[in-house]
Design brief:
The structure holds 2 protein chains of 2 kinds. Chain A is mainly alpha-helical. Helix content of chain A is about 75%, strand content about 0%. In chain A, strands 1-2 form a two-stranded antiparallel sheet. The two termini of chain A are about 20 Å apart. Chain B is about 70% helix and about 5% strand. In chain B, the strands form 2 sheets. In chain B, strands 1-2 form a two-stranded antiparallel ribbon. A two-stranded antiparallel ribbon of chain B has the order 3-4. The two termini of chain B are about 40 Å apart. Classes of the chains: A mainly alpha, B mainly alpha. Chains A and B meet through helix 5, helix 11 and helix 13 of A and helix 3, helix 6, helix 12 and helix 14 of B.
């Protein structure tokens, strides 16, 4: 039942370029990228109970490393992509070590502060990042000689990576390690008493989550062929967090649905209203007050109630 | 010599401003366990409000759709908050909110039928109002009222849900940022220095900018006043009791709930006043909130949560690091700024003077 649902979703997504125009295919790519980003954040927020407000750091860091290496060092994508992911993971090791000195609100403020370090660096360190101009003139990779410059080709590339990412994250959560992670979320002291190293579990999750955040960052920079410090800003982190919470944190489908909602809102409403940030803020407040559990758990509850009748 | 003297004074003035901002943040966090991410927005709101008072008024031209979004959505939140405060039954509330939504959507649809409609308005203040003290009072009052509304109507709904409260304050900070952009536009608004403080103060061959000295004095006076309030009065003792152990404080009959509102109001008003006091130095510009909030976070993490002394020391430390970092290593100033905080967190998670870990 559950596997069938996911398979159906993938089949529908495979069919998108045949039915829809280029605009929607590009929108689809953006949604897929946002979905990986939100799903990776969900590992921390939903399964680990660690509210991070600095997840855009990983998206931006991977994008900047890849862009910088290909522009300033002239290296090919086969080197820059793994280097970007590796670099992101290494920084995540350090940031995780610092942030996990605290939990809860302290963790949130530390992740926010640390991501601000990267944001400020991207803005100020003009020699490396070109500051407010951003890095432009990038190219998309061509794996196995297949060009990804077309909208459809890039969409399928994103879809393949997304399926892989979601599957691996699902395995991570379903594994004994994932069970231990949920244990540290619900009963950290009991988990400690049972002999689990709570800190280590959280730290590994932090780095793993940053890893997938970095993957989404690579896709992001391939899609836009451009990277600007704004991608590292609080807004960017907050959009990801909104996706997780709107969809339903701690569920596999939630962040995907939430990311899709946020991207659709952003693309459609921005056409009518200049004030996207204001709308983002109101959606945040409304969701937290009126729908704290998110769309997916809410729908699930309705569904089970309907079946019982 | 002159350069370094000026830099030192700049760092002290910035430290003073940071104290006005961070003191409220720290006490709010310590007492209520709310990481108030609107604190930077409150500072910015104060700066803009004060700038408008000092420039003698405000002229706005807002697209109809944007204004409609703001009015309808914030009206919905206000209505909800007020009804919860009045303890209405849930069914009544659902009907009222539903009716409100219907009317609002209908009104918007009618209003927006003419494309490109915009709201225009202007407020002109009499000349005697263009005074620094009135501007500070206006900023503090406006932001204080905003703080009370935020605390009573929205944050109170989410008591016990720390993550929810942070997210709501984050959402509201976006709303305020865009609201300021909508009303005051994207260009920075310079805030004039009061004429009586424009002349530099000369000591020997060195000239000091008088206004920065005044900012420093205001911050120190505020710090002393807050210290006396917290350490020498009954209310202060209650607040300290609330910070140390809210449940026990409640049990011995301290009105913790009222204290929450009062402290939130005080913190907000201080931030708003800080915004306008800092106006002649920093001016009012979009993004001021995002610049100030991380600084407040650093100060509080560095000094320790809920500690006035920590906020004081942390503010001047951060002000100095920021000013000298920018002067010496402009590229990496932002990294240097965060280093002491990271160092302190790594080796002393409760901060320099904090009594509780975050």
């Amino acid at each position: 039942m559950r596997v069938a649902g996911w398979a159906l979703l993938v089949v529908v997504l495979l069919g998108v370029p045949w039915v829809m125009g280029e605009y929607f295919v590009n929108l689809g790519s953006q949604i897929l990228i946002a979905a990986i980003f939100a799903a990776s954040l969900n590992l921390l927020v939903g399964y680990g109970g660690l509210p991070s407000l600095g997840h855009a750091a990983w998206l931006g860091l991977a994008a900047y490393i890849s862009a910088w290496m290909s522009l300033k060092l002239g290296l090919g994508h086969w080197i820059t992509a793994p280097a970007a992911i590796l670099g992101t993971a290494l920084v995540a090791c350090v940031f995780g070590w610092i942030s996990l000195r605290a939990t809860g609100l302290g963790f949130l403020m530390l992740t926010l502060a640390l991501s601000q370090v990267l944001w400020g660096t991207a803005y100020r360190w003009v020699a490396v990042t070109d500051g407010d101009n951003g890095l432009r003139g990038l190219s998309r990779p061509a794996p196995f000689g297949l060009s990804l410059d077309g909208a459809t080709a890039f969409y399928y590339f994103c879809l393949a990576i997304t399926v892989l990412a979601i599957a691996l994250m699902a395995m991570f959560v379903a594994s004994p390690f994932g069970a231990a992670l949920r244990g540290t979320r619900d009963q950290p002291r009991r988990m400690g008493a049972l002999g689990h190293d709570v800190w280590l579990i959280r730290w590994i999750t932090f780095v793993y989550s940053a890893f997938w955040g970095g993957v989404s960052g690579l896709l992001f920079v391939y899609y836009n062929k451009y990277i600007h410090p704004a991608s590292l800003s609080i807004q960017s982190s907050a959009e990801g967090l909104l996706g997780v919470i709107a969809g339903g944190s701690g569920t596999l489908a939630g962040p995907i649905v939430g990311a899709a909602i946020v991207m659709l809102l952003k693309n459609y409403v921005s056409a009518y209203i200049e004030r996207w940030n204001m709308l983002l803020g109101f959606v945040f407040v409304f969701i937290v007050i009126f729908m704290p559990e998110g769309v997916v758990p809410g729908l699930k509850r309705l569904w089970s109630r309907w079946r019982r009748k | 010599m002159q350069y370094w003297t000026i830099q030192t004074l700049n760092s002290l003035a910035l430290g003073g401003l940071l104290f006005l901002l961070a003191a409220g943040f720290s006490i709010i966090f310590g007492l209520m366990r709310i990481a108030n991410l609107t604190h930077g927005s409150m500072y910015m709101l104060g700066a803009y409000a004060g700038a408008s008072v000092l420039t003698g008024g405000l002229r706005v031209r807002v697209p109809g759709s944007d204004l409609a979004l703001f009015l309808v959505a914030s009206g919905f939140l206000l209505l909800f908050g007020v009804m919860r405060l009045a303890r209405l039954r849930q069914r009544t509330m659902v009907y009222a909110l539903g009716a409100y939504a219907l009317v609002a959507v209908a009104a918007c649809a009618l209003m927006l039928r003419t494309p490109g409609s915009a709201f225009e308005g202007a407020i002109t203040l009499p000349d005697f109002a263009r005074n620094m003290w009135i501007a500070v009072a206006a900023g503090a009052l406006l932001v204080g009222v905003f703080g009370v509304a935020l605390e009573r109507l929205i944050l109170r709904e989410l008591t016990g849900n720390a993550l929810g409260q942070v997210l709501v304050t984050l959402g509201i900070s976006f709303i305020v940022a865009d609201f300021c952009l909508m009303v005051w536009g994207g260009d920075p608004i310079p805030v004039p220095t009061p004429p009586s403080l424009q002349a530099p103060l000369r000591v020997g061959s060195v000239a000091f900018p008088t206004y920065r000295l005044v900012v420093l004095v205001i911050a120190v006076v505020t710090a002393v006043a807050l210290y006396l309030l917290m350490d020498r009065t009954r209310v202060g003792a209650m607040i300290r009791a609330g910070v140390d152990d809210p449940q026990m404080a409640r049990a011995v009959g301290i009105p913790v709930s009222k204290l929450f509102t009062a402290v939130f109001c005080l913190g907000a008003a201080l931030a708003g006043a800080g915004g306008i006091i800092g106006g002649p130095i920093m001016s009012a510009y979009p993004g001021l909130d995002a610049d100030m909030l991380p600084l407040a976070l650093i100060v509080v993490m560095l000094g320790g949560v809920g500690s006035l002394l920590g906020a004081f020391v942390g503010s001047f430390l951060t002000g100095a690091i920021y000013t000298f970092g920018t002067a010496l290593l402009p590229d990496l100033a932002y990294v240097i700024l965060f280093l002491p905080m990271i160092f302190v967190i790594a080796f002393r998670p409760r901060g320099l003077f904090g009594r509780q870990t975050v």
